[in-house]
Structures are given as structure tokens and as C-alpha cells.
Amino acid sequence: MNRKLGVYICHCGGNISDYVDVEKVKAAVEHDEGVFLARTTMFACSDATQKEMVEDINANQLDGIVVASCSPKLHLTTFRAVAERAGLNKYNYVHANIREQVSWAHSDNKTGATEKAIHLVKSAIARVRLAESLDPITIPSRKAVAVIGAGISGMRAAIELADMGCPVTLIEREHFVGGRVAQWDLLFTTDQTGKELVTRLYDDIAKRSNIRLLTGAEVIENTGNIGDFTLKVKVTPRYINERCDEGNLQRAIDACPVEVPDDFNFNITTRKAIYHNFPSEYPQYPVIDIKNCTRCGECEKVCGSIDFSQQEKTVEVKAGSVLMATGFDPYNPSEGEFGYLQFDNVVTLPQFKRIIDMCEEKLTFRGKDIHNIAYIYCVGSRQVEAGASSAGGSATDRYEEASRDISGENRYCSRYCCTSVIHSAIETKKRFRAVNNYHFTRGIRTYGKQELLYNESLKMGDIYLQSYENDPPSVIRENGKTTVRINDIMTAGKEISVNADLIVLVTGMVPRSDNRIASLFKLPKGRDNFFNEIHMKLRPVETVIDGVTICGACQGPKNITESVNSSLSAATKSFSYVSKGELELEPIIARVDAALCTWCGKCMEACPFDAVKKVVDGGKEIAAINNSVCKGCGMCLPVCPVNAIDLVAYSDQEMETMINALAEDIK
Amino acid sequence: MAAADTMFGESLKEFGAFDFNACYNCGTCTAVCSLSDEQNSFPREMVRFSVLGLRDDIHSSVKPWLCYYCGQCSTHCPQDAKPAELMMSLRRYLTSVYDWTGLGRKLYTSKAWEFGSIAILALLILVLFLFLHGPMTTELTDQGGVKLNTFAPWKQVEIGDWIMAGMLSFFLLSNIFNMYLKIVRKNKGLKIPIKLWFTELYNLIVHFATQKQFSKCDTLGTGKKFTFSSYWIIHWFLMSSYVIMFIMIVFFLGWFQTDNIYHWTHPQRLFGYYATAGLLTGVVWFFVARFRKSDEKSKHSHITDWTFLVLLFLTTVTGILVQIFRINGMPYPTYYTYVIHLMVLFPMLMIEVPFSKWSHLAYRPFAIYFDRVVQAAKKIK
Ligand SMILES: Cc1cc2nc3c(=O)[nH]c(=O)nc-3n(C[C@H](O)[C@H](O)[C@H](O)COP(=O)(O)OP(=O)(O)OC[C@H]3O[C@@H](n4cnc5c(N)ncnc54)[C@H](O)[C@@H]3O)c2cc1C
Ligand code: HEM
Ligand code: SF4
Ligand code: SF4
Ligand code: SF4
Ligand code: SF4
User: Could you tell me the CATH number of the domain that includes residue A403?
Assistant: First the structure.
């Protein structure tokens, strides 16, 4: 029980004292039980006052303090530090917010405000009387990081971690690393190719002995917590020996009778069940896609390197932190959306990138020469509320009009696409003859240095049209000709039409459709369904799941620069969890009274962080809290029927005395 | 609905346009233009029409003629899209569009046509003189001057004059009629009371006589509503000189092309001096500006800009020489330069007035006239 308390009541210049009579507050509390001294101060956070507090605590051997000032969001850490400087355990300081909650909220009623301030300070005093000294919880932390996803973000993070001396397991679901970047040829804004970037990173990974790369590998189970995660990883074999004979292999591929759409090319081409990597994909040896393989055995007949005896394995990966870099999917337009899958000359931007990469001298698609290209922007991004856009999608005997419904949940801008499509349009014009580019935009967002590309494309004669927010362009097929029409903002709403040989839907980024990994780690998602950080600005790569960081496009639309920026900061953050071998955690967590607990399991159901487990203690089944996982949110407290759970520093007793103090002399 | 057409932009380049594709529609140019107003907003809109290749909208627009080429828009364009150049190119283009013969287009886009036509018309004059000239007498008048009217009797020259004036009027007026069809007639359903054609007529006269729109171009950004720019003064001096000269040649040739040598205070000499001074000053001034590229409107010269100035200059200089040789009693030089003078004058008028740059003397005031009539008619509705 604390008995010798100091109370500081702040004027906050006049922010508080203009409405709250701080002297009256002081007079009302200075004789409360345990209060040794009470002071008012012009600015509690000023250097001078902080020094004075330290002196007070030392000179008078105070064992608890209350500061009544602004919100603890602003200065909790300031005054905790004051306590620590004076040698007082920081949990013996309690805060009362009499600015945001009093002076600012009740500027119309000075007497009432003063009264409320008195009660708040009294309740803080009541609580500090019961405050205990607490020590942070220390747990061991394994110096190893598991990186999930070997796209540009995951690979770059793995290299950085390895160079800081941290062992890394890089887990990639596909049989090849590189992620999306391997699929793009020329990249903005450096004009390097995806292949160049991926090759460089793959070589760097191969050089580092402390990176273990698992391909064809998927996390199927996650147990443990920060400092000590255990992942079960299912590794699918390639069914081909590493040292295979390339010549025979091509014959094996020719022999394979199974043909499936090639998702590397976004299904505009097909591949066999046994297939080769693209030049930009690593490791550079082939694989049998066992899901589609019929085990007909044709390939085995011509190639000795094929080995169906290889077995699926489960590997256990232990790590102190997990870095998530699982990337994104391109938005997949629904059938008929701007003519997609309805007219044969409508493709998405990712498909278009593959088409220009595959065409040699002439730009053709499905056997037809391409000269006029119409790009429709923001497909699947910046969507509007249902009913807000004119949907369209009608057919007469003369023409067929595609749906132009842009309603949906994806309200965000995908950031990469304006630049990517402009860059691709420039490249197309440079590489192929007689190409005319027509951009149907909703306002160009080539922010930063990417603006130069927009400028270049304008000067090359690309034409930009802009649609009204709720009036997207329409795609019409008439006598085998496709036209795109728009009411162009920049021509005072005049209807302009373009005859297009190819229509490219500039599709945005969406979260991976197969995102089971998110539920394995209980990763929170934002309204847009991408993984969510704790604080967009100040804690941009941490998640509320301690020890799990996120980066790259799994967190939201990003280009490569932005992905790598975040991946390097996630690497550093993950390393900070494991570098010391141990971790300090907040001691404000739930505590189970073993004597009272009868194990009903209600708390386990209520806990959003999976911190509660059933254990057997002296032959009795009771609930136990995992100290390294519990966040002290308090969700388990009210559900316990026998009141066996208390929150450290917010015990029932503490809360009740506070309530009593607040209710004092209120009739 | 209008179809976008990138080819239009390409063809406009032949008329001198460049870089206008860089426009990103910020509207700065329209904001700084002192002549753009609510009824007629430009030049951004014309840039946009040109980028999209909306031919019909361009053909029916008076806006290119409302621009007096101060260049403020180009100076301020953040994209360096040169909107002022675009407006100038559209004027050249429109001149070729109004011209139903198709010659205008050929003259603007082909050097062979431009110089070939000048040469042929000059040869025609030469041939006419070879066959029709009078005796090349060396006998001088009592005052010691050359007997020019013996070599080229003004009566005969006047016949030529009238034929030429007739042709000029025919082509120019028919082109103006074409312009009327495109600009006024495209307002389908708009009823224009005949009365308006008379009440608005003063616009045509005032703008032809004063070119007062120049005064509104606030090139220096002074914020004044009215400025006497040197460009305006010089241009007016040139214009009035030319008009005087034209009247004297077409209507009073007998009085002007005389063998008498009058006292310098005689109106024949005074008018002559005024006109030659105006023509010389103007032409030299514009030449120097174009050479030094001193301001936006002289920075970018299409080949036809030079031809116009060169022809005007040669006409003036040969005219002056004829006068000097005649007064000083030098028969042969007088006769030869007289022939050369006409060999330059005739092609200049025939090419420049109905088909090329000089047509602006009619298109500009008519554009304002047509615009006022249409706007007044719309108000009635
Ligand atoms: C058409 C198009 C063109 C683009 N062009 C450019 C450009 O020119 N310049 C530029 O800067 N940016 C460009 N971008 C953006 C660029 O593609 C992204 O910034 C980049 O791919 C993000 O990298 P990432 O590693 O975060 O994600 P990804 O590239 O998506 O990689 C994620 C990796 O994680 C793996 N993975 C997913 N789930 C799991 C799982 N559960 N377990 C294990 N592994 C998993 C995936 O297989 C993949 O290998 C373009 C994007 C598109 C759509
Ligand atoms: C006989 C009559 C005219 C003559 C001889 C004449 C002559 C010229 C010349 C030589 C130039 C070019 C200067 C250069 O090369 O930079 C010019 C430009 C110009 N003139 Fe005239 N002009 C005449 C009538 C008019 C009239 C009636 C108007 C307006 C109502 C007008 C408006 C302009 C304007 C705005 C320019 C600058 C822009 C452009 O070149 O189109 N002129 N004129
Ligand atoms: S980057 Fe451009 S195309 Fe992509 S969603 Fe944003 S505005 Fe639309
Ligand atoms: S306090 Fe919250 S996090 Fe901790 S055990 Fe209870 S419910 Fe779970
Ligand atoms: S100022 Fe330049 S960029 Fe802006 S609208 Fe005018 S021409 Fe276009
Ligand atoms: S040149 Fe001058 S008058 Fe012509 S559009 Fe530009 S600002 Fe206006």
C-alpha cells in the first residue's frame, strides 16, 4: 500500500486552467489519504517541472505520483521516464486526463469542469494507493527469422537479415522464386527487366549459407509466439532430378499429353503438366505439376531424370519472428466487365505485359495485327458504391455493349498501374510499328518521378481522355469492330469514340485469393482485405500479432521501390525481436487465480489473441495465460463466471476504488 | 459523337505546329490569355481539339482568329506545349480549309508549290511585258524624268490592275463565303434576323481599320486594359500604308503613275512617301524581330512567314528604285526595275491575299463580325 504520494495538477498554459480552477482542485485533494504533497504547475511536461518532480520524489521518498494533465497518449512515456529517473518504479505513476476529458470537453461549464477534474484526480489517487511495482516480462527469443514468400520483398528481406547475421528460412509456395516481378519484362522507372532483378537477388541468396530456401513449400501449421514460433511446412517435390539432361527433358515435355492454362502468362497460353521455368525464374530446373499430372508415364519413357519416387515432406521451421511477404493478385475482372471474356480482344494489363514480351517484330494478338490500343484505367480499383455508376451492358440487334459497372468494395487506388500502363504504352510504341495509344483514365496518378513517363508519353502523341467519376467509358462491339466511347471531361463532356484493335483493362492489385496463411497467423486485415499494420505512419510494418511483420504488396498496393523499402524495414524490425536472444514485454496482462478457476473455457473463446490455454495444475484443469501472447486487452475478464481472472494493474479492487472515488458525494 | 484521330495532329505539323501533344489540360494558357473570355474560351480548348483531331469542331471555330498571338500562353505553359504556335498553325490550316480551290493547302505544305507558283506568275508578267511593252525611249521629259508611261502606258496597266483586283476579290470573297458557311451556318436551327447583319457591321469596319484587339494583349503583364504596343503601332503603320498604296494603284493609277515630277509637298509624293515609309519600317521591323526571335510570336517562323515578308520587301524596294531612276532620268534602269517590280507585286498579291498569310486582313475582322452576329442572334433566342 502506497502512502506517500505526490500530486501534480497542470495549467497547460491556460488550456486547462481557463476552465478548471486548478487551485481548487489542489485544495480538494491535498488532504486525501496518503497525499504528501500537491502542486499546481504551468507546464507539467516542461523540463523544469520534470526536474522538480524528480527532486520531490527523492527528497521526500515519495512512493507514488499522480499527474493530472493532458491525454496519456501524449505524455504517458514522459512521466514514466520521470519516475524511472527518480528511481521509482514506473507503474507507481498514474495519469489523470483533465484536458481532453475535462477542460476541452466542458468549456461551457466551469464549475462542473472543476468538479469533474477533482473526481478524476481523486480516482487516480485511489488507484495509485494500490499500485504495485511491476517488472517487464522477459522471454527468450530464438535468433532466426522465417520469411514467407520469395517475391522481390521476401528475397530482399532475407538477404538483409542474413547479412545482419541472422539465419533465415525463405519459404516459397511456388516452385520458382521471384513472385510477380519475374513475370514483367521491362520495368518502370529504371528500364531494367524483371529477369535482371530476380537473377541478382537469387544469386545473392545462393551465395549466403545462412539462408535456407524452400520452394514448393507451404506453411500448414503455426504454433508458438513471438520469440518462439514453430511452423510446419509442407514441401512438394519437383519429381525431377536436379542434374537432369536438358535435351531429353524437352522430349519429355513434348511427350506430355496434358495441357493446362499457363498462369505465368495469365492464361493466354498453355503449358504441359511437366514444364520448364521461364528465363526469369529460379531455381533453373523444371518441375512436374503433380496436381495436373495424370501419371500416364509418357515422360518417364523418354527422360531418365524423372523420378516419381520423390516424396512430399513436412519440414519444421523454428524462428523468433516471422516476416510476411506473400504479395498480391492482379484484379480479375468479372465476365463482361468492359467486355472481358465477352469480346476476344479485351485483355488485362498483366496479360498485355506478357503479350508485348512474347511478340517479336509485329504486335499481334489472336492472329490479328494491333495498331490502335485503348487502355481503360482503374479497373477493379477506385470502385464506387453499388448503384452510383451507370451499369450498361445491353445488346441490340445492331451492337453489343459491355457492362461498365464499376461498383465494388475496392475503394483504394492501386498506385502502380497508371505508371505501369504508361510505361508499357511507351515501350509498345517504341518497339512496334504504327501503334496509337488511347488512354481512358480517371485522372493520372504518376506521382513523384514517375511523372516524367507521363510527360514522355504525351510528347510521343499518346492521347489521354478522362471519364466523369460515375460515367465510365463504354465498350461496344458493332459489325466485328470494337469501339470505346467516353464523355471526356477535358473536352467539356463531349462524346469521343476510338476504334480499338485491342482493349487493355488496367487492373489493380487485390489480396491473394488463396490467403489461408492469414488465418494461420490470425493476421488482421484492413477494410480493403490487405494485411494491416499497427499504425500506418509510425509502426508501418508491425502487426498486432507480436513478432509477425508484414511488407510488400501483401500489405497493400506497392511498386517495387515501395515494396523493397518496406521489406528492409520489416527485416530490421524482425531482427530487433530476435537479435538479443531475449525480449521484454509489458507486464500489464491477465492473471488467473488457480484456486478459483473451474475451467469452463469461456475465457479461451473470448480471447482474440489465442493467449488462453487449458492446463492441468495439481490434478485440476484450469486456464493458463501465455504471458508472451497476452495483450492485456481484458476481453476474458467479464466472461469468467467465477471471477477468477484479474488484469495486472487494473485489478477489480483497483477499478472499484476508482469508481468509488468518482461516485463520492454524488447523490 | 466524334472519333478521335491522331493523324490530324500529324498533318497539323506541316502547318508549323509542334509539341502541342504535351498539353496536360491544366488550363493555364486560357487563364493568362487576355483575349479569351466566357463566350470564347481559348487556347486550351483548341489544343484539345487538335490533340483529338476533332476536325469539325476546328473548322467551325472562330477562336483561332480571336487570338492576336501575343504569346503569353506559351510563356506560361508548364508543359512547354506552345499553345500560341498551335493557334498560329490553326490559322494557317484554316486559311487552307476556307480555300475551296485547294491551292492554299498546297502552298502551305509544299515548298515546290509555293516557289513554283511565284515563279510562274512572275514569268507571266515578264512574258506580257516582252510582247506588250511600249517603245523603250531614252528621250526624257522637260523636267528630265523618264517617260515611263510610254514604256508602260498606265491605261493598259490599269486594265491589268482591274483584272487582278477582280480575281483577288473573287477568290477572297468566295473563301470568306466558305468561312461563313462553316462558322455561321453550322449553328443549325439558329435564326439570324437580317437586321443583325447591319447593326453588327461596325465591328467589321472598326476591327479592320484599327486592329484594336492588339491593345488588349497584355504582354508585359501590366494589368492594364489597354496598351499601345509597338507591335500594334508598327502593324497599323504598315497596314495603313498598304491600304493607301492599294487605293492609289487600283483607283488612281493615272494620277499616281505619272511622268511629272512634282514638288515634294504634292499629295502624290506625300502619299507615296508615307506608304513607302510604312511598308519599309514595318517589314524591316518584322524581319528583325524574326531574325532575333525577340518574342514568342517571332520565335518560330514557318517558311510562308518569310516569303510574305520577303515579297513585301522586294515590292517596296523595287518601287522605290523605279521612282529614283525615273526622277533622275535613267530610262533603262527605270524600265527594268519597273518590270521586276510588277514581277514581284503580282505573285505577292495573287498568292498571299486569297490563299496565304495576308488573307488575315479579311478573316480576322470577319471572324469577329460573324461571332458577334451569332452571339447576338443567340441572345434573342
Ligand atoms: C502488370 C504489373 C506490372 C508491374 N510493373 C512494375 C514495374 O514496372 N515496376 C515496379 O516497380 N513495379 C511494378 N509492378 C509492381 C510489382 O509487381 C510489385 O511491387 C511486386 O511484385 C511486389 O512484390 P512482393 O514480393 O511484395 O509480392 P509478389 O511479387 O506477389 O511476391 C509474393 C511471393 O510470395 C509467394 N507466396 C504467396 N503466398 C504464399 C504463401 N502462402 N506461402 C509461401 N509463399 C507465398 C508468391 O508465390 C510470390 O512468389 C507491377 C505490377 C503489375 C501487376
Ligand atoms: C492591308 C492590311 C494588312 C497588312 C499589310 C498586314 C500585314 C501584316 C504582317 C506583315 C504581319 C506579319 C508580321 C510578322 O511577320 O511577324 C501581320 C501580322 C498580324 N496582323 Fe496584319 N496586316 C493587315 C491587316 C490586318 C488586320 C485587318 C488585322 C486585324 C483585324 C491584322 C492583324 C494581325 C495580327 C493579329 C497579326 C499577328 C499574328 C499573325 O501573324 O497572324 N492585320 N500583319
Ligand atoms: S494508379 Fe492509376 S490506374 Fe491505378 S488505380 Fe490508381 S488511378 Fe487507377
Ligand atoms: S487479457 Fe485479452 S489477450 Fe490477455 S488473455 Fe485475456 S482476452 Fe486474451
Ligand atoms: S498551359 Fe499548356 S499544358 Fe496547360 S492547358 Fe495550356 S497548352 Fe495545355
Ligand atoms: S497567343 Fe496570346 S492571344 Fe493568342 S491564345 Fe495565346 S495568350 Fe491568347
Answer: 3.50.50.60
Using a CB-CB distance cutoff of 8 angstroms, which residues of chain B are in contact with residue A490? 25, 48
A447 part of a folded domain: yes
State how far residue A490 is from chain B, nearest Cα, in angstroms. 7
> Across the strands, what pairs with A240?
A306
Residue A461 has its nearest CB partner, among B2, B21, B48, at B21
pTM for the model stands at 0.87
Residues A30 and A70 in one domain: yes
Find the B27 Cα to ligand 3 centroid distance in Å. Answer: 23
CATH code of the domain containing A616:
3.30.70.20
- Count of beta carbons in the 10 Å neighbourhood of residue A50: 19
3-state DSSP assignment of residue B217: coil
By C-alpha distance, the chain A residue nearest B26 is A490
Q: Do A494 and B2 touch (CB under 8 A)?
A: yes
Domain stop point among A466, A492, A510:
A510
Q: Please indicate whether, in this complex, the C-beta atoms of B3 and A464 are within 8 angstroms of each other.
A: no
Nearest neighbour of B52 by CB, restricted to A454, A455, A491: A491
Q: Which residues line ligand 4 (CB under 6 A)?
A: A 589-590, 606-607, 609, 611-612, 625, 630-636
A661 part of a folded domain: no
Do A56 and A181 reside in the same domain of the chain? no
**A333: DSSP letter:** P
For residue A458, give the ligand nearest its CA.
5
Residue B355 DSSP class: H
Between the CA of residue A665 and those of A41, A102, A122, A279, A660, what are the distances in Å? 27, 19, 12, 80, 10
Which H or E run contains A591? strand A590-592
Q: Which residues pair with A328 in a beta bridge?
A: A511
- Pair A77, A109 in one domain: yes
For residue A478, which residues of chain B lie inside 8 Å, CB to CB? Answer: none
Q: Are residues A553 and A616 in the same domain?
A: no
* Cβ(B27) – ligand 5 distance below 6 Å: yes
Domain that includes residue A259, residue range: 246-302
Q: Enter the ipTM.
A: 0.89
Residue A331 CA to ligand 3 center (angstroms) comes to 12
> Is B121:B347 a contact under the CB 8 Å cutoff?
yes
End residue of a domain, out of A550, A578, A606: A578
Domain assignment present for residue A408? The answer is: yes
Both A95 and A171 in one domain: the answer is no
A368 in the same domain as A481: yes
Residue A593: its H or E element? none
Query: Left (φ > 0), alpha (ψ -120 to 50) or beta: where does A210 sit?
Result: alpha
Instruction: Tell me which of A459, A460, A478, A488 to substitute to probe the interface with B (most B C-beta atoms closer than 10 Å).
Output: A459
Q: Are residues A408 and A538 in the same domain?
A: no
**Total structural domains within chain A:** 5
A173, A212: one domain: yes
Nearest protein CA to atom 8 of ligand 1, as residue: A187
Contact map slice: B 17-76 vs A, CB within 8 A: 19, 21-25, 45, 48-49, 51-52, 54
The tens-digit pLDDT sequence of chain B (381 residues) is 799 998 999 999 999 999 999 999 999 999 999 999 999 999 999 999 999 999 999 999 999 999 999 999 999 999 999 999 999 999 999 999 999 999 999 999 999 999 999 999 999 999 999 999 999 999 999 999 999 999 999 999 999 999 999 999 999 999 999 999 999 998 888 899 999 999 999 999 999 999 999 988 766 666 677 778 889 999 999 999 999 999 999 899 999 999 999 999 999 999 999 999 999 999 999 999 999 998 888 999 999 999 999 999 999 999 999 999 999 999 999 999 999 999 999 999 999 999 999 999 999 999 999 999 999 999 987
CA of A348 to the centre of ligand 3 (A): 14
Name the packing angle between helices B267-292 and B303-327 (round to 10°): 150
Contact B4 A464 (CB under 8 A): no
Instruction: Sketch out chain B's domains with CATH numbers.
Output: 8-98 (1.10.1060.10), 110-380 (no CATH)
C-alpha B148/C-alpha B140 separation (Å) is 10
User: For A253-305, how does the pLDDT look when each residue is reduced to its tens digit (9 = 90+)?
Assistant: 999 999 999 999 999 999 999 998 888 888 888 899 999 999 998 998 888 88
| Distance separating alpha carbons of residues B314 and B320, to the nearest angstrom | 10
Asked if residue A188 belongs to a domain, the reply is: yes
